[in-house]
Structures are given as structure tokens and as C-alpha cells.
User: Fold these one by one.
Assistant:
Number 1:
Amino acid sequence: MTGFGRGAASGDEFTVAVEIKTVNNRYLDIHLRLSQELAPLEMIIRKRISARLSRGRVDLNINFERTGATTYEVNRPLIAGYVSAMREIQEQFNLAGDIDVSAVARLPGALSPARDDMDEMNTAGLEKALDEALDSLELMRENEGAALADEMRSRLAKIEAEVPVIEAAAAGLADAYRQRLQKRVGELIARGGQAIELDAGRLAQEVAYLADRSDISEELARLRSHLEQFREAVDAEGEVGKRLDFLLQELNREANTVLSKSTEIAIKDAGLAIKAEVEKLREQVQNVE
């Protein structure tokens, strides 16, 4: 589910700002943008996010700054090598002059801000900012989730409206098969020019066989059950995304079976309408945890 959250915290010698963004994904996929200084805290940050979120691509950006006096570390081996090389040049080419301190200071890597370890106060401030960003994110996702649940209920109602259409069309299948068989046999007899009397018993057996092959009562019962379970899951608390995924697979399976068992136009139209709504629900369920 898409969302955005921001959090911030500060202390005597630091400020930290956290921004978190989520987009749809079937699994939890966390991407962090951290400074090298925060690298030791990566596992703590990931665990804190995983405790609050279960699905979606998560992009997290943390801006940590120290506000106290900055101290520098001197890269002594680098400077020593530079000074030694300069003196060797002087001796070899008989050059005069002193080594410029400012030139040494400008050497890449000669001086660098000291990397102080993250103490408990810094870590606590970062966790506070992260929790604040997650709270803001979840609030936004809850509002979006409420609208999403309403839309899914609307699509469920459309699917449920097709079930009685299928049931009504299926109720007359036996008579329809009988009429088709009688008509077809009559056409064949008329084409052959022979007077043959139809065996009513044999005709009834064929009709019963075709009706049994096209019986979709079990599929419709399971379809209604899956719809009810889906509605209960939408209204439930906690993580329901994977359950909804499974129920959509089952709904699609029942719709396919109904379509394969019947040639009636009304049933096929209703079955295709159900499959279309299931596909729309599938896209929406990707946003649900």
C-alpha cells in the first residue's frame, strides 16, 4: 500500500530526519539510504520496520547530522608519504623551498571528520524519529485502506449479483438439453427420409448424462462460501493480504470451472463478468498487508 511518513528528533549534539515511502509489492522489500556512520545500525532499523510492516517496497532515507564541535582525524601515513616524496624531489633536483602546510592539508584524505561511535542518546534519537515516521506512514495507509476496503466490498457485491443469474440459467439446462437433442435427432431423421420413432428412455438418459456433466451446483456453493470468507477477511484486523490472495485464486478457479461446464450464453457472460471483477480485486489486494 502506498504511503509516506516523516519523523525528526534532535539532541545536544545531533539532529536526525527520517523519511519513509512505501509502494505496492507482494513481499516486504526494504531499501535504505544511510550514511556510513549509520551502517552499524542497519539491522536494528530493518527489524524496527519489519515489526510494523509486512508487505510493500519500503524506501527509507535517514539524514543524521552532528551539531557539536567537529574534530578531525589526521591521516599520518598519507602525509608522511607525501612529505617524504617532496623531500626526495628536492634532493634529486636540487630544489629549494619549504613544504607548505596548507598544501598538505588540501591533500585528498589527509584530514577527515572524526567518526564518533553512535552512543545511546544518538541511537535513541534515531529510533524516535523512525517511529514517528512509521506512525505517520501508518496513519496515511489506514486512511487509504478504508477507501480500498469500500471499493473491494463494491466489487464483491457485483460478483454476488452474478451468482443468481447463473443459478437461474442453470435451472433450465435439462429442458434446454432435451429440446436440443430432440431437434437435432429430428433434423437427422428428416435428412435421411426415414420414419424412426424416438426412444423416450434413451433420450432421458442422454439428457441426464449431459445435465450431470454440466452440473455447477457445487461450484456455486463454493463460490458463495469464498465470497463470504473474502468479506470477513476485508473486515478483519491484522494481516489479511495473503488470505485474500488465496481466496481470489479460488474464486477464479470456480469461475473457470463454471465456464468450462456450460455453453449457455447467460452463464458464460456472468462467469466472464465474475472473472473481470476478480482480476480487478487482485490488483487491489496487492495493496493489502
Number 2:
Amino acid sequence: MVIGEMNPELEPSESLLHAQVRVGEPEMRIDSEGRLRHANFPGAEGSLFLGDVVDALLRGFGAHEPPRVIEAPGFDQQRWKIVVADPEFSVTIVSQSYWGFGLFASCFLNEIRMEGPLGRRARLAFDLAAALGRNPWEAKWRGRFAKVTGVTPADEKDAWTELIERGHQDLSDTIDAMRSVTRALENDLERLAEEAPEGWDFESAREEIGGARAEFDIAEDALHDRSATGVERALARAEAYLIEADPRTEVAAQFDSGEELLEAMAAVEAEEIDLSETVLTLEELPEDSIRTHTTIDAKDIPFVDLASEEE
């Protein structure tokens, strides 16, 4: 049975991949609303075996609602269809056997259809291959895999590697962009120092820039190891160094830590705040207010008895 056609080019909004499953676990539960839950979720009765591919995919997807089970498994708990999505990105996964009647976990393949921005699709493919530590397109039984998917082994490999290389390039471009920002800051540091706030130190700023450069090297190493998380963490630390180095970030320059900033704010005494000019004092009520008050106190306000209406 053919479950999808392959386009070797990167589509603007959709990608179709097929992956070989090696491990059937973990086991997941299905709640009353058809949502996928962890095995210890209270009240969930149905279950399925997710497999190593989709387990890694869900971990790399990012923040999302519990996946929806579109087709629940029957006798074989490794046959199913689920959808995981956020507001801009959706992935539909079909798990089915392609040889051996599904007797073993490796009898299964996953069809992965991704719809959304190319950057998200590329990043997910990059993270998935890195998390698995193997080439997902390499099948246990190549001929049968190609027959069921309708995609040649060469085309399947191309589909994966094009996205993986795009994800790699996106991360590399991010590192290069931050390096450019760092060079611009370093070249402009002497001019910025002329208008720097009190407490900012030129030599300390140069040390912070050196720290950022060291983090870029760490990010490059992490990218070589296909660790997108390692790249992001290194770049986050580099960004923190650059904020400290830039004299235009006055709060960071004036206070070494958030605690010092809070202490400075708390040091303001109540008597130092003069509210005398902002308080409106009124010695005598306006005439209109007096007339209104008199009217309310008048004895001729009609009395309405509603007790009889309740009867």
C-alpha cells in the first residue's frame, strides 16, 4: 500500500518523511477526549506504543497541547494515527507495519507529514535525527520499505538530508549573525564609552565581549555534534555577555545584579516622596452637591411596598 508520494524539492509549506522504528516503547495512554497522555495519567483507559521516533519527535517539537489520537489502535497497539500541533505548525504521524505482520517493533515505519514554516520543519528534522543518533531513513528491509512508502531509498534520503542541512544552516546563520553584532559592538566601544553611564567600565566590557566569543566557539562545537539545544544555550550565554558589555543597556551597566537594583529601589524612603502637590483638598462641598444631598433627605420621597406583589 502506498501511503505517500515524495517530492525531492523543499516545499514551501509541507514536508513528507518516512522513518524506520527501532524501539516500540514508550507506552502511552489515551484519555476520554482522545488525547495522548503519559502512562500514569489518571482515568485514561486506552493505550498505544509510541515508538522511539515519535517519542523523540514530541520532545523536540516544543510547547504543544497533548497530541490528538485520530485513529486509535486495535489489536496491534503500534498501529495508530496522531496529530501534534501549535498555532503555526502541525505534524501528522501514521504508524504501520511494513513487514513481518508487526510482530516486532522494527516491523514498523512512521509516516511523518509536517505542515508549517520551512524553518520549523527543518529544525524538527535536524533535532529528530540528532536525538535518535541514527539515520531515520535507513530501513530494516529497504525493498519492502520503498514499496510500501512509494519512495525510493535515494529520494527518501534526499528528503531527510535537505531538511537536516537546512536546519543546520539556520543555526549556523544565527551564530554568524551574533558574531557580526559582537564585532560591531567591539568596533564601536570607544565611541560608546564617551556617553557611557556611571559605573560602566571599558576593560570589563572587553572581557564580556571575550566571554561572548568563547560561547560562539562552544556553539560551533555543539552544532558540529548536532546538538541544537547546546547551540541555543551557548548563544543565550553569549547574549547575556553582550548585554553586560554594551553601555547602552544602562540598567545592566549601573547595577551588577538584579538584587542590587531591587536594593536601590527599596532604599527610597517614604518621606522622600512629596505628594502635597498631587492631593486635592476641598474645604467646602459644591452647591450642586448640597442640593442633591438635600433632595435625598427630603421627606416626600415616595415609599413603594413590594410585599404585596410577592404574595
